[in-house]
Design goal:
heterodimer; A: about 120 residues; mainly beta; seven-stranded mixed β-sheet; four-stranded antiparallel β-sheet; globular; B: about 110 residues; six-stranded mixed β-sheet; 12 strands; about 50% strand
Chain lengths: ~120, ~110
């Protein structure tokens, strides 16, 4: 079955370290997205990419970086510049062409990042 | 710009009670509307959707009707179960804005036996 795989499920980061969260999809979706979710809060968009080798900042991009070297993969790096990285991170993907708007987003199961 | 406003939670109901979670939207075009559900520690799953005015989305006993005149997409279920305890997100997607999704802040539902 097609879907989105996020790994790891749990990640611990020491102060000052960079960490990378993996997101892979086999849905042949064009666009991929990273969201941050804090306890009791909604989703905030970090970065998104609509095509390979191109990506755009979302609402809270500071302290994060991404790459899109392959259509299937959209890793997120949480850098040491992100002062409060403890959160639940969600990756999503969608079709852009044709009636992509009809189908909505498909989400991964998330990565919980904790600073120790 | 486009936006979604959801009723604030948390909502606590007894099993078999009737559920309504309000959602209203603002959009310049003709958006598609969605309800997503998030179970504890998991990602979001699509629950139901409606793509044009007066459409009714339904799934697992949940329903929502796209009301253009009131710009609303309220989620309802006639008889909730303990297994429905989750966070529910209303969202819209407008093809005129490149399929960008706009999410509500989520409503937490707890169903007690």
């Amino acid at each position: 079955d097609g879907g989105i795989t996020q790994s790891p499920k749990y990640l611990f980061r020491k102060e000052g370290q960079n960490v990378t969260l993996s997101c892979e999809q086999n849905l042949n979706h064009d666009a991929m997205y990273w969201y941050r979710q804090d306890p009791g809060q909604g989703l905030r968009l970090i970065y998104y990419s609509q095509i390979v080798n191109d990506f755009q900042k979302g609402d809270i991009a500071e302290g994060y970086s991404v790459s899109r070297e392959k259509k299937e993969s959209f890793p997120l790096t949480v850098t040491s510049a992100q002062k409060n990285p403890t959160a639940f991170y969600l990756c999503a993907s969608s079709v852009l062409k044709d009636r992509g708007w009809y189908y909505g987003y498909t989400f991964g199961s998330g990565t919980r990042l904790t600073v120790v | 710009g486009d936006s979604v406003t959801q009723m604030e939670g948390p909502v606590t109901l007894s099993e078999e009670a009737f559920l309504t979670i309000n959602c209203t939207y603002t959009a310049t075009g003709y958006p598609s509307l969605f309800w997503y559900v998030q179970y504890p520690g998991e990602g979001l799953q699509l629950l139901l959707k409606a793509t044009k005015a007066d459409d009714k989305g339904s799934n697992k006993g949940f329903e929502a009707t796209y009301r253009k005149e009131t710009t609303s997409f309220h989620l309802e279920k006639g008889s909730v179960q303990v297994s429905d305890s989750a966070v529910y997100f209303c969202a819209l997607s407008d093809q005129r804005t490149g399929n960008q999704f706009y999410f509500g802040t989520g409503t937490s539902l707890t169903v007690i036996p």
